[in-house]
Amino acid sequence: MTLADQIRSHAVKRYINPARRGNSPVPATVTIVAADVVRELKLQQRCPAVCGALDAVKFQTEENIRLLHRSGPKHGYTAKWQFLV
Questions:
Q1: 0.70 cut: is pTM over it?
Q2: pLDDT digits over 13-27, tens only?
Q3: 55 vs 7, 25, 26, 44, CA distance in Å?
């Protein structure tokens, strides 16, 4: 499994799946911050890898999610994604 796959897998387990398990009748949204993923996976100096993995169309396609908003620097710790799950 590549680092990008590990990052996406973590995002699904930590953020996407819990949002999907909610009992709301409307689709849920989830926000992921690059610094949080870096910290959770202990990926010092690997923020560009986190940003690349979460920016990938593959992530949205494989998980059937849609990017609503992306803010922050292209490869920075304050990069933030909001997905419709």
A1: yes
A2: 999 999 988 777 777
A3: 11, 27, 25, 19
